[in-house]
Amino acid sequence: DARRKVPEIVVDDLLGATFCAQDGLGNPHEVTQAYVARARERGVRFDFQRSATGIRMDGESVVGIETSQGPIDTPLVINAAGPHAAEVAKWAGVDLPVLPFRRHCFTTQPLPFVHDRLPMIVDMSSGVYMHRESGGMLLGLAKADEPPGFDTSVDWDFLERVVEPAVRRIPALEAAEIANGWAGLYETTPDHNAVLGPAAGVRGLMLANGFSGHGFMQAPAVGQLIAEWVVDGRPSLDLHPLRLERFAEREAMVEANVI
Length: 259
Ligand SMILES: Cc1cc2nc3c(=O)[nH]c(=O)nc-3n(C[C@H](O)[C@H](O)[C@H](O)COP(=O)(O)OP(=O)(O)OC[C@H]3O[C@@H](n4cnc5c(N)ncnc54)[C@H](O)[C@@H]3O)c2cc1C
Prior knowledge:
Elements (H helix, E strand, L loop, with lengths): L1 H4 L22 H14 L10 E7 L2 E7 L4 E2 L3 E3 L5 H7 L7 E10 L12 E2 L6 E5 L2 E6 L17 H11 L8 E11 L6 E4 L6 E5 L5 H18 L27
Parallel strand pairs: 4-11
Antiparallel strand pairs: 1-2, 2-3, 5-8, 5-9, 6-7, 7-8, 10-11
Bound molecules: flavin-adenine dinucleotide (FAD).
């Protein structure tokens, strides 16, 4: 079945394969721009030139933020700072275990076997993932020995370690020319799951952090649930398992299938 779906993949060494017809691929830039446009229509104001530099507290309550262009009074701050989430939480005295880890992906020039219905392919033994991108393929792999840090320069020496397992799974990639390389940051928690909800002990700080490299697909649901929390006082899903306190309570459940 796997070979029928993707004739290019080597299946001889596979014990099994999964396919979900409802899975899809999204373009993060397009999705983000669509959200921005819709939010603007509904009266949201964005200030992309303004960095938050601190949180103003009155005792245990948030009363405002400091920014690069002066302070703003507010009783509510939502920490959605991605890899910078720990620093933002610290401004309110909250210890948030989110570390930045550099992650690479590389794209190829257009390839003859790539078509619109080619599914994303994840090789679970090596961790390499591949999906169609601008007529070619995007290849990604987590570097196991990457130390935490904010460096997003491309380590071109790493390319070979990505290409090798990719070509083993799809030999047709042997002929591919690399078009580009890119590195971004995963925002990783100790159990590779998000931290969602109010920060205990601080009034007015909401956490939407630590998506550990799988935040794009969770973003629409997270946005809705956090909005419900703020507007209705509670979310429509039980998010107790994703509370920050789970780490101190030793109730974290490690997500093993992060690529
Ligand atoms: C190579 C790579 C591949 C990935 N692939 C996938 C995938 O296939 N599927 C998936 O679901 N996820 C994927 N992810 C993960 C996904 O991109 C993240 O989980 C997601 O972007 C996290 O969203 P976020 O809004 O929490 O943070 P971000 O998208 O990082 O956004 C945080 C924002 O906060 C802003 N910010 C930070 N500090 C401040 C400040 N002090 N003041 C003002 N603004 C600030 C930043 O500028 C940024 O705009 C991938 C990530 C990488 C690096």
